[in-house]
Design brief:
This protein has 166 residues and is an alpha/beta fold. It contains five helices and five strands; from the N terminus they run αβαβαβαββα. The protein has one domain. It is elongated.
């Protein structure tokens, strides 16, 4: 019985320590919260126990997409940092992004965010460079797709003009 009570006390002390770290957020800091796996249930539990704000990023290796999860993320988080991008299919990633939930690969943040920490405070300046790198690659991909589309369209126009000219 005493051992059970000691375990409960340790758990409560750990929660208090986590709450202190969240509460002592500076105006130039973002809180990274590790929720793994990221499900609607786990997110709601986290939100009840430790809070969740629009200024938090969620670190996870696995996302189980649902309408409730998307709704909660959209209203209560900056986005997701995905440790293992292979676990989230491109279709699921696009679903999150279409619904206003940013998804970033962990590789861009590995120099400033530790995978093993449950809660971390990170300076916005440190994250800004990481996010810019991720966005630049994303925009590069979109730009490449656009250029390929334009090229295919031009090719089609040329062929069509040749067909009409003959």
């Amino acid at each position: 019985m005493v051992e059970k009570l000691e375990n409960i006390v340790r758990e409560l002390e750990d929660k208090i320590e986590l709450l202190k770290r969240v509460a002592m957020r500076g105006p130039d800091e973002i809180i990274i919260k590790k929720i793994d796996p990221l499900t609607a249930e786990n997110l709601e539990k986290w939100k009840r126990e430790f809070g969740l704000t629009k200024y938090d990023l969620i670190l996870t290796s696995n996302v189980e997409i649902s309408k409730n999860l998307i709704s909660t993320l959209k209203n209560n988080a900056l986005g997701i940092i995905l440790i293992d991008t292979k676990r989230l299919h491109n279709r699921e990633r696009k679903t999150l992004e279409r619904n206003g939930v940013a998804v970033f690969p962990y590789d861009y943040f590995s120099t400033v965010i530790r995978k093993e920490d449950l809660i971390q405070k990170v300076k916005i300046d440190s994250l800004q460079a990481c996010i810019q790198s991720a966005l630049m690659e994303y925009l590069d991909e979109a730009e490449r797709a656009y250029i390929e589309f334009r090229s295919a369209l031009e090719e089609y126009r040329k062929r069509r003009l040749e067909e009409l000219g003959e």
